[in-house]
Design goal:
The chain has 19 helices and four strands. The chain has 487 residues and is mainly α. It folds into two domains: 303 residues, no CATH class; 117 residues, no CATH class. The model has no long low-confidence stretch (mean pLDDT 89).
Length: 487
């Protein structure tokens, strides 16, 4: 108990903790205001979200909704928000402590820790109601990273701890777990003096990543009977689709950053690393080895990012599913400061570039977040009008509307002049589940889904409504069923 108190006291005295807290609140403090995505509007009135998340292998996420099902949505959201902030802060803090074992420049370790955790992919994690559990996954991964060196030396306790931590990470959210392999490649390099050790260490890290992941998949497959392991695409088709997506991601970062900013930052760091390798007084063989390790680490990050796509039922690449790719620059910096000596001018240049990059990231995050809340507002305004019509009908007829039929009549996934970020920034009325979910949220009761009525469908298709238009003709109520057309 005394030791625990000492650890807590030392942590609270560490100034870096407050740097990480300030940065986290700067980037994500706005999320204290409740927000929704097209997927999470329906998380308010039934236990179905827990079942859905468990079927995806997110057992801890599912348990979160079960345990908190008895409290209000607002309270549940606030708990998740606080947990996300704390998990983000302590992920950076823990990583910083790990990096300080090898890198003596704490300004650099702080920057690398921030660039690793707050990368372009993190924004999507914060947009979902279960943001706290998603970020808890990152914290579990970083805790596992802290035990890698001991595991590579054969420490059984470290191996067991990693397996437990990585299984917990998978049960929170699988899209972040590739970060273990990505950072693990740095410690493979550090602890490999011979080719045989390099091969052995790759196998160890690979197994420590794969065993918990496959255990998670098997539990879901054979206990919950999910179809996540079914593969309609061939391996070749998947690889081809993945490679096609990767080229665009490096350039465009899903539209989160301006084109070429991310890859440009990576190129600057790579060039600085190469220059330092060439300038070093090491033997040619050592220089060649450093070039090899640079290529190896970059490849490890990319493979770690896309590996889950290979075993999933489909290739679904969005920011939250390739979290570790956003940490590419930070991981290259980890390798650089492990392998070569740098002068003060290089350190200053990297810190300045890092600050500029984070400033650009912050500006674009803020822009997207504001559009996200704007989308939420437009969705809620429309939903409240529809619910008012439903309640008037119920009051006049004495009937209760229990079902909804959805008639989509628009290909507009986002509102005009808003920045798109896939599911996280889509209109609720673009999808059947989003439409039903937002209506359930306002009504505070579940609605069943039914098939379209052919006569009503024909009527809706013959109307010449403008994009985003809403009028009373788009709402037809028959008996206990709402027939809703969206534009």
């Amino acid at each position: 108990m005394k030791k625990v108190v000492e650890v807590i006291t030392d942590t609270l005295k560490n100034k870096s903790l407050y740097v990480f807290l300030a940065v986290t609140l700067l980037f994500f403090g706005i999320y204290i205001i409740q927000n929704f995505t097209v997927d999470t509007y329906g998380y308010s009135v039934e236990i179905a979200p827990a079942i859905h998340l468990v079927n995806l292998g997110r057992l801890i996420s599912g348990a979160f909704f079960v345990v908190l099902s008895g409290i209000t949505l607002e309270a549940r959201y606030m708990i998740s928000f606080i947990l996300a902030i704390l998990a983000t802060v302590f992920s950076m803090y823990k990583l910083n402590e790990i990096l300080k074992r090898d890198i003596k420049n704490e300004k650099m370790t702080i920057l690398i820790s921030i660039l690793t955790i707050i990368n372009f992919s993190i924004l999507e994690l914060y947009m979902f109601v279960e943001k706290g559990i998603m970020m808890l996954s990152v914290l579990f991964v970083i805790m596992a990273v802290g035990n890698i060196e001991k595991a590579l030396s054969g420490n059984k306790k470290a191996i067991i701890l990693i397996l437990i931590e990585m299984f917990a990470a998978n049960c929170c959210y699988q899209g972040t777990v590739g970060l273990f392999v990505a950072i693990g490649s740095i410690y493979i390099v550090k602890n490999s003096k011979k080719i045989s050790e390099f091969i052995k260490n790759n196998i160890i890290v690979g197994l420590l990543y794969a065993i918990p992941a496959f255990l998670n998949l098997l539990i879901v497959k054979f206990i919950f009977h999910s179809n996540r392991l079914e593969n309609p695409l061939s391996l070749g088709e998947k690889i081809s689709k993945i490679m096609e997506n990767l080229a665009n991601i490096m350039k465009e970062t899903f539209g989160i950053l301006p084109d070429y900013v991310f890859v440009g930052f990576a190129i600057i760091v790579i060039l600085l690393f190469i220059i330092k390798i060439i300038q070093s007084k090491e033997k040619i063989s050592k220089k060649v080895l450093n070039f090899f390790f640079l290529i190896y680490v970059i490849a490890a990050v990319v493979v770690a990012a896309v590996a889950p796509q290979i075993v999933s039922a489909q290739v679904y690449i969005v920011p939250r599913t390739i979290y570790c790719l956003g940490a590419l620059v930070a991981i290259i910096l980890m390798l650089m400061y492990q392998r070569v000596k740098t002068e003060k001018i290089v350190d200053i240049s990297i810190i300045l570039c890092g600050i500029i990059f984070l400033a650009i990231l912050y500006a674009n995050f803020t822009d997207i977040i504001l559009d996200h809340y704007y989308t939420n507002k437009l969705d809620m305004d429309r939903a409240e009008k529809i619910v008012a019509m439903m309640e008037n009908y119920e009051k006049e007829t004495g009937k209760t509307i229990t079902k909804v039929a959805f008639y989509p009549n628009s290909d507009k996934a986002q509102y005009e002049d808003t920045r798109f970020l896939g599911d996280a920034n889509a209109r609720a009325f673009y999808t059947e589940w989003g439409t039903r979910g937002i209506l359930e949220l306002i009504l505070n009761r579940p609605l069943g889904s039914v098939e379209k009525n052919e006569e009503i469908d024909t009527f809706f298709k013959n109307q010449d409504w403008q994009d985003y238009e809403f009028n009373e003709q788009q709402v037809i109520i028959k008996d206990d069923t709402l027939h809703l057309c969206t534009k």
